Every structure is written in structure tokens, then in C-alpha cells.
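Notebook entry, cofactor series.
This is the third protein in the set we're modelling with a bound small molecule. For this one the ligand is manganese (II) ion. I'm keeping the input format identical across the series so the outputs can be compared line by line later. Sequence and SMILES below, as received.
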Amino acid sequence: MTAIRFFHMADLHLDSPFKGLFGLPEQNFKKIRSSTFEAFEKIIHKAIDEKPDFLLIVGDLYDGEHRSLQAQRRFQEAMEVLFQHNIPVILSYGNHDHLNGSWTRFALPSNVYELPAETSVVQLKIRGQVVKIYGFSYSERHIKESMIESYPTANDQHAIHIGMLHGSESSDTTHAVYAPFKKEQLLEKNYHYWALGHIHKRQLLHKEPPIVYPGNIQSRHRNERGVKGFYDVTLSQISADLMFVPTSAVVYSKVEVDCTGVFHANELLEKCGAALADNRQEYGASVVELHLNNIDEQAEALFEHATVEAWLETIREEEEGIEPMCWVQKLMYHRTATPYEPTAATESVINLMEQWDISAWKDILRDLYQHAGGARFVEPLTEQDIEHLKSSAQTLLADEIQRA
Ligand SMILES: [Mn+2]
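Returned structure with ligand:
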């Protein structure tokens, strides 16, 4: 039984602009701004070193439909290098880099198969083993209808069949639904592997055969936390072996500091420094959301004469110049819950807040999220954000009542 080896990646989002970052030193911004390229280059180096049989790239190679010139140039150069090493690449375009955008065209070398808008098959022969790869590119940004019917059922028993699909599982309503599918529909095709893209969080929807989201290769904002990468897959007709390979050039992470017993400002700074050093040790270059937990009355005095912004600035100064970089994007502090006597008024407000669903919250926050000048600076509202808003609103309310 011949086994083949390929790299499965998706959502490169090359030249992502990282719009939500402000006030950071020039060299930090440069590092972050080039992280999508750096992550991609790690993959190309590994491909050159280890010579997999081919690469699959499942949509959203480029961040914008205008496909920045720099991104295209860097991508083309990478493909030329793979051409010299005889490594084929099969790619599809997704909702971000759909075929209807307007961009300056670069010609890619002949080892690269760009899937067209109609579901098509690419056939390769690897050490005598026939491999059939099916997929399509987005003809326009919004493909809301299911595309799965357009994929043929595997009938050639001697071939290895792989489906490439940029889209979302139809029950997953946390994302805009693109080219929706049900897991059962994929399984019915009798393929040996489903290479998915679109959802940036790595996940295995099914084990045998594997149905896989590798996630993106580099986080783009604080809601895409953790180490990103791709899958190095060894596949035969009867077995699949998946190895995750990290590629993040900059890791977005959440760092928590326990402030129990903190009394002096320097103690707080030391604790933050130590926690950030651990984070640096684990992830290398990073963008951090720093949470100060268990702020008791004693520790709270530290925030009476200095604002959170002033603390953030001081912590950033402490970190400046240390390599690899650690940019504290956000500082949040959480008081130990101060018991308060609930009154009918506070309870009714809190209960009301509990009843708002995601669309009610979106409606309430409409002024901010639809603001002509400001909307482009805020990241999309997530369920996590709403949870956080809800708890801060409740704490604030309880506090105000108590002080009144
Ligand atoms: Mn994407």
C-alpha cells in the first residue's frame, strides 16, 4: 500500500494589515506586520528540506480581494522555489481572495494547479499511486449555497481521493456561513481525506477518514489565540497520520497574574514581568492580553492614583527592548467579588441583561459598531466579548450601587 505525504494548510491571509494595533514601537509593528509572510516562509523551508509529495492550500491565500502586490510577489517566488524542487501545489481561492476581485495578475509556475470556480479534479501519480484531488475556487465573495453536491462520489478503488473545501459546517452559526456542508455529506463521498479551510481555529471534525481544519498559519487578532500552523499528513488508502506543525511568527496569548497579597507597585510590576517572561519562554514573540486577577481592596489602592492606561504604559516600558518582543495590547483587571446586598432594582437590571441574546447586544452596541469613522478600528464582536461586557457591566453596576 503506497503512502503519500502532503502538507495541508489554509487561510494564509498573506499581508494581513493588523488594523487593531496602536501605539507600538516601529520594530514591533514591523515584526507583527510581516508575521503572515514569516509563517508562510517556514512552511516553504520545511517543504524544501523534507520534500513532501505535494502541498494543498485551501482558500484565503490573500487577505483582501485586491491581493496586495507584495503578497502576490512573495507567493509567486515561493512557488518558483517549489517548482525547482519538483513539488506540486494544488490551491483554491476562498471568500477573501475570490475570483471576482480586481488585482494585478502574476503568472504562477506550472507546478501550481489553481482550481477554477467549477468543482474540478486534479490527478497526480506518486510512486505509481494515483491521487485525485477535488475542489473549487470562490467565483465571488459570498457563496451561501451548498457546494457539496458538485463533488463526485469516489468510484475509482485504486486511487486515493482527497476533497478540498473552503466553507463551514452548517450547524456552526458562530461564523458567516459559506459553502455550508454537513459532516455526513462529506462522508458519503467516500474520500480518504477532507482538507478544509475557512475556520481559523484548528479542529478535527472526524477521525476516520480525517475531516480537518488546520486553522490559519498566523493569528490576525486577539480572538485568534494560541499557536497556529498546518498539518503534515501521511496518507494511504487504509491509514492517515497527521502531525501538526507550528508556524506562528507571533503568538497571541492571554497571560494571567494572581494579585493576591500585592501591596506595592513594584510587586505588581515584578509579578507582571515574571508572567510575561514565562509567556516569552513558551511562545517567543507575542501579543498579550494581560489579566490582573484577584485584585483585593489592598491591591486596588494601586489603581486609585494611577489609571489602567498609566499602568499599561509602565508595563510596556518594562518590556521594551527585550527580545523576542512581547507587546501588551490590553490590560484588564478583575476585582475579587465584593459582596453586596442585591436590591430589587439591581436584580431587575441584571436579569434584563441576562435575557439579551447576541442580536440584542449587537443592537445595543450599534452606535459603536456602525460608527462611520470608528467601526473599522474595532474587531468583530464575538460571544466572548459579550460575556466579558456582561460581567463588567454587572460589576460596574454593583459597584456604583454600593458607592451610592
Ligand atoms: Mn480565512
